[in-house]
Amino acid sequence: MNASNKKIFHCEIVVDNAKVAAETKAYQPIPVITDFTDENGRDRMKEQIPLNYNRIKEEAKQIVTDELERIKNDPDL
Q: Could you report how far apart the first and last alpha carbons of the chain are, in Å?
């Protein structure tokens, strides 16, 4: 690459600290949707996520099986 193909950009990032501070102060906490803490206060997320994944996967398979059976038994489909 020769010198004529190089481009140099000089810039300055201007941050309005007061505006950023005001925005940050207005932030709302993210609500907890699912808590994986058990009755003894232990985090069970690593165990629960695979269980949920497998349950949903099996439910999806069952939906497909049920729908294929419904389609097979309906002469209009």
A: 64
